[in-house]
Design a protein that fits this description.
The protein has helices at about 15-25, 40-50, 65-80, 110-135, 150-155, 170-185, 215-225; strands spanning about 5-10, 30-35, 55-60, 85, 140-145, 190-195, 235-240, 240. The chain is of the alpha/beta class. An 8-stranded mixed sheet has the order 3-2-1-4-5-6-7-8, with helices on both faces. The chain is globular, with a radius of gyration of 17 Å.
Length: about 240
């Protein structure tokens, strides 16, 4: 089996996900570009290859059982194992004025849709890729979360956490909790799993509002995906260190 490390990044066709793939590729990883849109995925693969990254496309809709199963089969065919999984794909759900989501008038279908992608999708992909990760000597899993999922920060009136987002923010709290449960299950193994906050990044996800570039937003996830053996697990990080739950 090749000594080249293998990574899969979901939602990697643009924005932060693309820059995570690009950053891992620059470190010598062979990178699977997971994305559901065929044209955008292949365009991203071509762009990464032009930059010298060993990239391959992985058709992947995190909300579909069959799509995720076929993605795992493709990674096995292409690489035989997986060293790093970055669960980056996520959605905010429909928002109102000021990018807000009022809990008192929230459409429950919006909640279900966001949970399906941001939480259930991560569980679906992680479990499908686990057999491949277990073949790695140093498997790493990174769940791209957000500081808006910090209950400590959300409950502190002195901290500006942006608008009320009653569908999106709780899914990141849920994702953080799921990350801890995986870490507990993986205790005593070589698998390290952590959550990463990219910060407020100017991408189409935020309407290109934010002080940070996609490259800056990708940095924490890249660091966690390449942790040395014995590194932290079951924690929640941003650039400056650990984020309170």
């Amino acid at each position: 089996m090749s000594e080249t490390k293998i990574a899969l990044v979901t939602g990697a066709n643009k924005g932060i996900g693309y820059e995570i793939a690009n950053g891992l590729g620059a470190l010598g990883y062979r990178v699977g570009v997971g994305a559901r849109d065929d044209a955008r995925r292949e365009s991203a693969v071509e762009k990464l290859r032009a930059a010298g990254v060993d990239a391959f496309g992985v058709p992947l809709d995190v909300t579909g059982d069959r799509s995720v199963t076929e993605a795992a089969e493709l990674v096995e065919e292409q690489a035989g194992r997986l060293d790093a999984l970055v669960n980056n794909a996520g959605i905010s759900g429909e928002t109102g004025p000021g990018w807000g989501q009022d809990p008192t008038s929230l459409d429950l279908d919006v909640v279900r849709t966001v949970v399906e992608t941001n939480v259930i999708g991560v569980i679906r992909v992680t479990n499908a890729m686990l057999p491949l990760l277990r073949r790695s000597a140093s498997p790493r899993i990174v769940n791209v979360s957000s500081s808006v999922g910090s209950l400590t920060r959300q409950a502190d009136p002195d901290i500006d956490v942006g608008p009320v987002m009653a569908a999106y923010a709780p899914t990141k709290s849920y994702l953080n909790a799921v990350t801890v449960q995986y870490a507990r299950q993986f205790a005593g193994t070589d698998i390290l799993i952590n959550a990463a906050c990219p910060g407020l990044v100017a991408t189409d996800f935020t309407g290109f509002n934010g002080p940070r570039t996609p490259e800056q937003g990708a940095a924490t996830a890249i660091r966690l995906a390449t942790l040395p053996d014995g590194g932290p697990t079951g924690s929640f990080f941003e650039d400056d260190g650990v984020i309170p739950w």
